[in-house]
């Protein structure tokens, strides 16, 4: 048994919240630069110039890339040989979110109850936390703060097996075209195929943890990612005001499903595909 | 890109009607930020027959909820939020005299109809360019509803705030115009 103290978790999460808000990951920055080179629309190129410049200012001056610093989505893998000392894991993570969002001058964007009262919790908690038990004596924490301009445009379709690959492509395209210019394109698109309704949605979120320049290790899914990217970049949506760079990448994750089902979920992320990671 | 047009506030119907979809502009003057919660509170106040905290006639609204300012800065990161969420309140707000809206994303047909009626222009700022946009904001002052935090109604003093006309007062839509040549499905 190895011991990890809750203070270490809180401190790491706080630091990650700030880091993710200020520093656009290198792969996303490079994808934006590449998009700027190939973009056919002059207005689109101007928008990409502003987005790239914005990422540079945010990094240089420790400022949030976007004012929507998001809801904190946290994937945590806990090794079965770790003993957590000092309290509950979820409390430690939420304490880190509150600390990071407060110290980092990040926007508090979470309401405690969604329908009747909608009162802001004032510290951006609670986070959305997905915990899984894994082998080993480490804790891996991945944070992907999620803005809701893009989250609101995400979607899900329950297809049937007969719909096949073409059905999946058509479903993803329907969701993207419905999202249109709204989710701050160029988008990064996470797709979850299989599982149940909720599992597909989870897979589509987890897909966004993979860098934009790494394709699925399964060749057929890697090809699906490339085909989907080509299709999405033919919609004309472009970098907000029309063009050929509608998405920077499509990441697909898949999972076992029922003989009767083919769930497809799409999580749309804006160009500010923020991410931070720590192993404790 | 074509030369940028400089506009100032107050922003009259006459000035608004001169702008065309696709025009790039730089806005200087005072603009007022309000988003979901402030729109709900304002339209509810109007329904009760109450006066609003500011006179919206010939003003511009910016759909925004900024991050907190760091010490010494006038404002934090401050890019546009999705305008469509305000559509339900917009015809009522335009009847108050608003002549310019700044946000991002598409609008419902009933909003465009109200824009044509009152001679209103809808501008887009680049979504997610929030640290860059902050450079054009010189002052941020909460005017009303401080309890709404980032959703409070506030006055922003801006100099050369960059935006593009996406829907003009005749209803021409640059999102549609801009996408068409690149739609190849």
Indicate the CATH architecture of the largest domain in chain A: 2-Layer Sandwich
CATH class of chain B: Alpha Beta
Radius of gyration of chain A: 19 Å
Spatial gap, N to C terminus of chain B:
27 Å
Q: Unreliable segments of chain B (pLDDT under 50, ≥5 consecutive)? A: none
Strands of the widest sheet of chain B, in order across it, are: 2-3-4-5-7
The CATH top-level class label of the largest domain in chain A: Alpha Beta
Structural class of chain B: alpha/beta
Features:
heterodimer, A: 280 residues, alpha/beta, Dihydrodipicolinate Reductase, domain 2, 60s Ribosomal Protein L30, Chain: A, four-stranded mixed beta sheet, 8 helices, B: 185 residues, fumarase, five-stranded mixed β-barrel, 6 helices, 26% strand
Report a brief summary of the structure.
The complex is a heterodimer of chains A (280) and B (185). By secondary structure, chain A is an alpha/beta fold.
Structural features, described:
The complex is a heterodimer of chains A (280) and B (185). Chain A is 39% helix and 25% strand. The longest helix of chain A has 20 residues, at 42-61. Chain A has a four-stranded mixed beta sheet with strand order 4-2-5-10. By secondary structure, chain A is α/β, with parallel strands linked by helices. Chain B has a five-stranded mixed β-barrel. Chain B has 185 residues and is α/β, with parallel strands linked by helices. Chain B is globular, with a radius of gyration of 16 Å. The mean pLDDT of chain B is 97. Classes of the chains: A alpha/beta (280), B alpha/beta (185). Chains A and B meet through α3 of A and α5, β7 and α6 of B.
